[in-house]
């Protein structure tokens, strides 16, 4: 099988060939990591269970590199199920083979097998992350990627005294595989998590959690770079620190103009670089809560959700007088769980840095316009499948999701292999629509619930160099964090209500929009992105709420090769896992 181990010399030669092919920048290094997927027992909320981890760690190990480096990660699957790993926000120029989503760019790594990923860093600088891209495995299989500036260069802000990864996540007492299986069996929504977490700890407001609460030791006058990641499966989150303001200097490993705020709102998949200046403002108190709270736009009275606030403690340790006195102060500036105005007020202030070292190149001419409706739908239960009960689905159906009324269906072999070997017929269809298409089943769509949709493995094919504008239009009652693999894109506009193609483009920011890989599309609103399709390969686009991925809120871009060797996809590695 394709996951068999290769001789060490062959791996070395493969790495040398790839390093030469991608022409790494002067001074760049090749860095090596080994990831061992294992089942490990962890206890949270007084409840012990076995979870999948990397190297027994939860969260997993941090990858450290510099801009332009090549990172080689050999993943050994010693777990009990198939798995893949994705390097979230890494463009992987010409190298979709190591991007990671199962049945899109690879078949999964089987138990007992291994696969070596070649993670090619190019323009990214800041914080990204890696995570499993199979089923719901990324609930516990994830970690940070820290990309420092090239040697001889530095941050576009004062060098911090210390850097601290802060990974926001979720914890389920139940086995996460059981959570997914139950939802698929019964056709309903996924059970909400039992707690939000900060660096895998819910904080001292939860039972059996006080002793293990994550703590950050700071000293008066120092500056700390918080590398914040939302690794949650289902929740947008507000984040704040009592008695302190935060200065955002980057999002998705692209620098922003410094933005000083009382709180941030970060969607699943997103990363933010945030400066914390240690300046006590609440008298002699030396302990302050760092807090992450769910932000939700769904109706609270009909949809189950995680209404919890995770906490960590920022503690001053530089003075004998700075001793804990009473409980830490709570961040009163943390917005309420449904404060949509607070969320929009934050995200609309983000701007690209746009200086000489980090310029902005927003495409002004668009070759391909796409308007993509995002929706929550239903699919009929299969009456011939006795295992499919749909007891919890709407109107006797099962929940689904769609883009332009196509609910994506993963094929039995990966799309990339089918494209590479010109065998896509029967695996995928090249007719993903540029605009919404109507599909109404009069026997089901009577106005009393979600609309019926249809399954399909439809992809969008682009010529190399095409400038694409995608307007995401949300028809549902919740925000959607839309993530594009293989590219960063400019978020040129957003708004509430229905997108008006004759009026709304006049409101676009084409001067310094933020450059991201994951955009939060507002509930019943729209967001517009632009990118140049100059990365040949097969690239997944999907909502980063994992239940929506399973339900079908996905599609694939296939970018054809350009004319020059540097505009063409790398050759298929010989060791790709087999389906």
Automatic annotation (TrEMBL):
<feature type="domain" description="Plastocyanin-like">
    <location>
        <begin position="449"/>
        <end position="562"/>
    </location>
</feature>
<dbReference type="GO" id="GO:0048046">
    <property type="term" value="C:apoplast"/>
</dbReference>
<keyword id="KW-0677">Repeat</keyword>
<dbReference type="Pfam" id="PF00394">
    <property type="entry name" value="Cu-oxidase"/>
</dbReference>
<dbReference type="InterPro" id="IPR034289">
    <property type="entry name" value="CuRO_3_LCC"/>
</dbReference>
<protein>
    <recommendedName>
        <fullName>Laccase</fullName>
        <ecNumber>1.10.3.2</ecNumber>
    </recommendedName>
</protein>
<keyword id="KW-0052">Apoplast</keyword>
<dbReference type="GO" id="GO:0046274">
    <property type="term" value="P:lignin catabolic process"/>
</dbReference>
<keyword id="KW-0186">Copper</keyword>
<dbReference type="InterPro" id="IPR008972">
    <property type="entry name" value="Cupredoxin"/>
</dbReference>
<keyword id="KW-0479">Metal-binding</keyword>
<keyword id="KW-0560">Oxidoreductase</keyword>
<comment type="similarity">
    <text>Belongs to the multicopper oxidase family.</text>
</comment>
<dbReference type="InterPro" id="IPR033138">
    <property type="entry name" value="Cu_oxidase_CS"/>
</dbReference>
<dbReference type="InterPro" id="IPR045087">
    <property type="entry name" value="Cu-oxidase_fam"/>
</dbReference>
<dbReference type="InterPro" id="IPR002355">
    <property type="entry name" value="Cu_oxidase_Cu_BS"/>
</dbReference>
<dbReference type="InterPro" id="IPR011706">
    <property type="entry name" value="Cu-oxidase_C"/>
</dbReference>
<keyword id="KW-0964">Secreted</keyword>
<keyword id="KW-0439">Lignin degradation</keyword>
<dbReference type="InterPro" id="IPR011707">
    <property type="entry name" value="Cu-oxidase-like_N"/>
</dbReference>
<dbReference type="InterPro" id="IPR034288">
    <property type="entry name" value="CuRO_1_LCC"/>
</dbReference>
<feature type="domain" description="Plastocyanin-like">
    <location>
        <begin position="163"/>
        <end position="317"/>
    </location>
</feature>
<dbReference type="InterPro" id="IPR034285">
    <property type="entry name" value="CuRO_2_LCC"/>
</dbReference>
<dbReference type="InterPro" id="IPR001117">
    <property type="entry name" value="Cu-oxidase_2nd"/>
</dbReference>
<feature type="domain" description="Plastocyanin-like">
    <location>
        <begin position="37"/>
        <end position="151"/>
    </location>
</feature>
<comment type="function">
    <text>Lignin degradation and detoxification of lignin-derived products.</text>
</comment>
<dbReference type="InterPro" id="IPR017761">
    <property type="entry name" value="Laccase"/>
</dbReference>
<dbReference type="Pfam" id="PF07731">
    <property type="entry name" value="Cu-oxidase_2"/>
</dbReference>
<dbReference type="Pfam" id="PF07732">
    <property type="entry name" value="Cu-oxidase_3"/>
</dbReference>
<dbReference type="GO" id="GO:0005507">
    <property type="term" value="F:copper ion binding"/>
</dbReference>
<feature type="signal peptide">
    <location>
        <begin position="1"/>
        <end position="21"/>
    </location>
</feature>
<dbReference type="GO" id="GO:0052716">
    <property type="term" value="F:hydroquinone:oxygen oxidoreductase activity"/>
</dbReference>
<keyword id="KW-0732">Signal</keyword>
């Amino acid at each position: 099988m394709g996951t068999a181990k290769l001789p060490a010399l062959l791996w070395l030669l493969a790495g040398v060939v790839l390093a030469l092919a991608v022409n790494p920048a002067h001074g760049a290094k090749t860095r090596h990591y080994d990831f061992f997927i294992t089942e490990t027992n962890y206890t949270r909320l007084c409840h012990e269970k076995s979870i999948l981890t990397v190297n027994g760690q939860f969260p997993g190990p941090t990858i450290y590199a510099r801009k332009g480096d090549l990172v080689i990660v050999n993943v050994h699957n010693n777990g009990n199920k198939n798995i893949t790993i994705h390097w979230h926000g890494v463009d992987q120029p010409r190298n979709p083979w190591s991007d990671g989503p199962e049945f899109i760019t690879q078949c999964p790594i089987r138990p007992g097998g291994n696969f070596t990923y070649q993670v090619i860093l190019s323009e990214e600088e800041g914080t990204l992350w890696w995570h499993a891209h199979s089923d719901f495995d990324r609930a516990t299989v994830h970690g940070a990627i820290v990309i420092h500036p090239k040697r001889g260069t530095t941050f576009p802000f004062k060098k911090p005294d210390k850097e601290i990864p802060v990974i926001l996540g979720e914890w389920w007492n139940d086995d996460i595989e059981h959570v997914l299986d139950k939802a698929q069996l019964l056709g309903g929504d996924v059970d909400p998590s039992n707690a939000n977490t900060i660096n895998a700890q819910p904080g001292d407001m939860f039972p059996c959690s006080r002793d293990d609460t994550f703590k950050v030791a700071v000293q008066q006058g120092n500056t700390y770079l918080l590398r914040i990641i939302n690794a949650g499966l289902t929740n947008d989150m507000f984040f704040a620190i009592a008695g302190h303001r935060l200065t955002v200097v980057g999002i998705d490993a692209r620098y922003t103009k410094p933005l000083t705020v009382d709180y941030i709102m970060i969607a699943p998949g997103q990363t933010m670089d945030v400066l914390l200046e240690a300046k006590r403002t609440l008298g002699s108190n030396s302990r302050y809560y760092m807090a992450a709270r769910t932000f939700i736009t769904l109706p609270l009275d009909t949809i189950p959700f995680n209404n919890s606030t995770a906490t960590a403690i920022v503690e001053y340790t530089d003075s004998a007088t700075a001793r804990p006195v009473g409980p830490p102060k709570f961040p009163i500036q943390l917005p309420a769980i449904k404060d949509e105005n607070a969320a929009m007020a934050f995200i609309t202030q983000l701007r690209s840095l746009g200086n000489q070292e980090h310029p902005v190149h927003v495409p002004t001419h668009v070759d391909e316009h796409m308007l993509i409706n995002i929706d929550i739908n239903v699919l009929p239960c299969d009456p011939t499948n006795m295992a499919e009960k749909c007891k919890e689905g709407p109107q006797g159906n099962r929940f689904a999701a769609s883009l332009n009324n196509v609910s994506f269906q993963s094929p039995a072999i990966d799309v990339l292999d089918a494209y590479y070997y010109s065998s896509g017929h029967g695996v995928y269809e090249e007719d993903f629509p540029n605009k919404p298409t109507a599909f109404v089943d009069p026997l089901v769509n009577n106005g009393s619930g979600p609309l019926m949709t249809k399954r399909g493995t439809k992809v969008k094919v682009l010529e190399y160099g095409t400038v694409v504008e995608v307007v995401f239009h949300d028809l549902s009652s919740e925000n959607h964090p839309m993530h594009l693999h293989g590219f960063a894109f400019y978020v040129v506009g957003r708004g509430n209500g229905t997108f008006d193609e004759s009026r709304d483009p006049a409101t676009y920011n084409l001067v310094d929009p933020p450059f991201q890989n994951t955009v939060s599309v507002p509930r019943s609103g729209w967001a517009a992105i632009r990118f140049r399709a100059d990365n040949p390969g097969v690239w997944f686009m999907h909502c980063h709420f994992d239940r929506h991925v399973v339900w079908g809120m996905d599609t694939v871009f296939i970018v054809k090769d350009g004319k020059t060797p540097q505009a063409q996809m790398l050759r298929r590695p010989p060791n790709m896992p087999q389906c």
